[in-house]
Design a protein that fits this description.
The protein has 121 residues and is of the alpha+beta class. The protein is built from 7 helices and 6 strands.
Length: 121
């Protein structure tokens, strides 16, 4: 878990606390912590109390956004830090269009994953 800088904080429009995610996914907070520990979700410390928070864009109703878990794995395999992953996911890309995380939520994950894989080359 990383503490983020102001640049990344400005890129990510909304954040969720782990208990909120647990409620949305109808699971225990300990399970959310396990998802973070296993790399299925990305959480960072932010705010005055440095609480763990996850970008709201990673949650779609009562589930994790389709394709996110695999994409996080690809980016980590490419040796991206958590901060670099957030920057890449939330930086607008005119060729997509939008941000990679928006494309994921719009079921355009194949293209996003292809681009993430190309970063390793």
């Amino acid at each position: 878990m990383t503490e983020i800088d102001a640049k990344i904080d400005a890129l990510v429009p909304a954040w969720l606390y782990l208990p909120d995610i647990a409620e949305m996914l109808d699971i225990e907070v300990t399970k959310v912590r396990q998802l973070v520990k296993e790399g299925q979700l990305l959480a960072v410390r932010r705010g005055e109390n440095r609480s763990l928070q996850v970008p709201a864009a990673f949650i779609d109703g009562d589930k994790i956004v389709k394709g996110l878990v695999g994409l996080l794995t690809v980016l980590r395999d490419d040796r991206f830090s958590d901060t670099e992953i957030l920057e890449w996911l939330f930086t607008p890309d005119d060729t997509l269009p939008g941000t990679p995380v928006q494309a994921l939520s719009e079921n355009r994950g194949t293209e996003v994953k292809r681009r993430a894989q190309a970063l390793a080359i």
